[in-house]
Amino acid sequence: MKKVIPMIVAALALPVLVVQAQDAKAIYDKECAKCHGADGKGETKMGKKMGAKDYTDPKVQEAIKDEAIFKAIKEGFKDKDGKVLMKPVEGIKDAEIKAVVAYMRKFKKQ
Fold it and tell me: Distance (Å, rounded) from C-alpha 110 to C-alpha 38?
């Protein structure tokens, strides 16, 4: 019985994780890809204009912390002069932001 309960819990949690990953991609595609690109390279017209980072670059991935990405999504991002480069994503839950951060980490090239 002790072995069955964890297996049941894991089986019930798996669909939630899959849905969360799908939701993260959908949120990224809707809210982020227009600047950061579907592939995370930032080579869109708006991304180039705003200086979006290339999230496929391991050095970029290493330099930026999850907390910074989370904060930028939740609160927006300004340059050193206070110019808004990225508006906050409206109506997004913290769990969804964490899922988007995890999704963005998958862009990293080895």
Answer: 18
